[in-house]
Design goal:
The complex is a heterodimer of chains A (243) and B (271).
Chain A: E1 21-23, H1 29-42, E2 52-55, H2 63-75, E3 80-84, E4 98-99, H3 119-122, E5 138-140, E6 149-152, E7 157-159, E8 168-171, E9 175-181, E10 184-187, E11 197-202, E12 206-209, E13 212-215, E14 228-233, E15 236-241
Parallel strand pairs in A: 1-2, 2-3, 3-4, 5-7, 6-8, 7-9, 8-10, 9-11, 10-12
Antiparallel strand pairs in A: 11-14, 12-13, 14-15
Chain B: E1 3-8, H1 16-29, E2 34-38, H2 46-49, H3 60-64, H4 70-73, E3 75-76, E4 83-86, H5 99-112, E5 115-119, H6 126-133, E6 137-142, H7 146-159, H8 164-167, E7 173-181, H9 183-188, H10 194-201, E8 205-210, H11 213-220, H12 225-228, H13 233-245
Parallel strand pairs in B: 1-5, 1-6, 2-4, 2-5, 6-7, 7-8
Antiparallel strand pairs in B: 3-4
Helix pairs in contact in B: 1-13
Classes of the chains: A alpha/beta (243), B alpha/beta (271).
């Protein structure tokens, strides 16, 4: 039977950008899963309802192993919305889709030798590396309330007020809190390991810089309630009082 | 044009209904035309505290669904001439409230009264968001305990995002009413101190109501505490809160601090 479409209604397709957390598993995967369980145990519900991307760029993994990993993550209630940095041969229809920024990833890297269509390439002048997207900073002059989530993918976030317990602030750059930090603060989420967190009164539930976490229990008790700065040294988070 | 006040809280049982009745009566005793509206459809209680439960014929849901006129549902208080009550339905639930109906009722009340005080249901569900939607001023009722303060913080977040004022880019005037405060227990550390609550919530303090048997007694005889015994400590605290609502700059005294004796008059206003 052929139905005739009487109302050709267009389907709405909109571009939208979301900030997703990227998980980068390490070999051996089983050890890494144990670490993940430790993190999840310390901050219950951390991965719930969050878009998570699996970053496989530093992982040499087979399709069956990947399928196994995704299944194991699913049992931990981590739902993978996409896979980044995976070879095309690795992905199958039953696996999460590839996220490639629109660029194709193939099994063989072919460094494209472009014809002189780009005049800029012929003149390798010492230009400013990549027209750095203007790092806009966000200033919030109200307290961040319990249940609220403040995302700022690029640049710093300055909060003139407190960050309540049960709220979270996620920033691509540094986070400055001129008040008490009681909720979660995640700085440098887009891969900025030089980002820092500053606050007038440290009472955070969780802090993170470039994907490295510390939960409330890991924080030095003597620093509680103090004005501190938090930064990353290698793979360890350092917390020290300021002033 | 009257002012619409929503009396709200995250946690239940903190004293919203008591405070609505007490503040409504206190404002009306000074001659202002006041209506207290029970938004807690399904669990109505304001009529009990106001001592009008036997006089309820029509309620808010009847008015919203067009089964009764607003004037038929309004109950005049027997003690104060300018105090009215719009009761909630006991038998229906919150789904009977429609956004359009609520708006119509609130607009009509605003035109007829100086103060429209809405007793909101606790929590963040539909009933609570409908009650706060058209408010000009919010009174956040909090007990000095951690769970109550946390939930109030969440409600303040909603007041800043889910109300008409917020959607129009304005900020809602918010006040904190700290109820059931016991200074001896706060001193012992069994309760949060006033400063701690103010520091966490950072909204201006409207008043501190001391924990007192007078409140319970007044509720049980069906009278707002400000009418039952105007000289009791909680009644005085509510009268002062009502004066602050009227715009008077009255310093807040923490119950238990001897007034004058130590000269400890705290002018507390958080940022």
């Amino acid at each position: 039977m052929n139905d005739v479409l009487t109302q050709p209604r267009p389907i709405r397709l909109k571009g939208r950008s979301f900030l997703a957390l990227a998980l980068s598993p390490e070999m051996p995967v089983d050890d890494w899963l144990v670490q993940l369980d430790n993190l999840a145990a310390r901050s219950a519900g951390f991965f719930l309802r969050k878009p998570i991307v699996l970053d496989l760029s530093s992982l040499d993994i087979g399709q069956d192993e990947l399928r196994d990993l995704v299944a194991k993550l699913a049992t931990r209630k981590v739902r993978i919305m996409g896979i980044e940095g995976a070879k095309a041969s690795l992905l199958a229809p039953d696996l999460p889709p590839a996220l490639t920024d629109g660029k194709g990833t193939s099994d063989v890297e072919i460094t494209a030798v472009e014809e002189s269509s780009a005049p800029a390439a012929a003149n390798p002048a010492p230009t400013v590396s990549a027209p750095s997207r203007s790092s806009s900073s966000l200033i919030v002059s109200q307290p961040v309330r319990s249940g609220q989530s403040l995302h700022h993918a690029e640049g710093d976030v300055t909060i003139v007020g407190s960050v309540a317990s049960g709220s979270e602030v996620v920033a691509g750059g540094s986070i400055h809190v001129y008040g008490a930090l009681r909720g979660r603060a995640m700085a440098g989420t887009m891969g900025n390991s030089t980002a820092r967190i500053f606050c007038r009164k440290l009472e955070a539930e969780l802090i993170a810089i470039d994907g490295f976490y510390l939960t409330a229990e890991d924080l030095e008790p003597s620093l509680r309630g103090k004005a501190v700065q938090i930064w990353l040294e290698g793979e360890t988070i350092k917390v020290a009082a300021v002033i | 044009m009257g002012k619409v006040i929503v009396v709200t809280s995250g946690k239940g049982g903190v004293g919203k209904t008591t405070s609505t009745a007490a503040l409504g009566a206190a404002l009306a005793q000074n001659g202002a035309k006041v209506v207290v509206v029970d938004f807690d459809v399904g669990l109505r209680n304001l009529d009990l505290v106001m001592g009008a439960e036997r006089r309820v014929v029509y309620d808010l849901v009847n008015v919203i669904q067009g089964e009764a006129k607003l004037t038929q549902a309004l109950i005049r208080d027997k003690r104060v001439e300018t105090l009215f009550l719009l009761p909630a339905s006991q038998t229906r639930d919150k789904d009977n409230l429609t956004p359009e109906g609520v708006e119509k009722v609130i607009t009509a009340l605003k035109n007829a009264f100086d103060w429209v005080i809405c007793d909101s249901p606790a929590g963040i569900e539909r009933g609570a968001t409908l009650a706060m939607r058209h408010a000009d001023v919010a009174i956040v009722v909090t007990n000095p305990e951690v769970s109550s303060v946390r939930d109030s913080d969440r409600i303040i977040g909603l007041l800043d995002s889910k109300t008409l004022k917020a959607e129009n880019g304005e900020t809602m005037e918010k006040h904190l009413l700290l109820t059931r405060y016991d200074s001896a227990r706060a001193e012992r550390g069994d309760m949060l101190k006033v400063d701690d609550v103010l520091e966490i919530l950072s909204i201006p303090l409207l008043g501190i109501i001391p924990e007192s048997m007078d409140v319970l007694r007044a509720s049980n005889v069906g009278s707002p505490v400000t009418l039952a015994d105007g000289r009791s400590a909680p009644a005085i605290a509510y009268f002062e809160a009502a004066r602050r609502l009227n715009g008077e700059a009255l310093p807040v005294v923490i119950p238990g601090d001897k007034r004058g004796l130590f000269g400890k008059l705290f002018g507390r206003r958080a940022a």
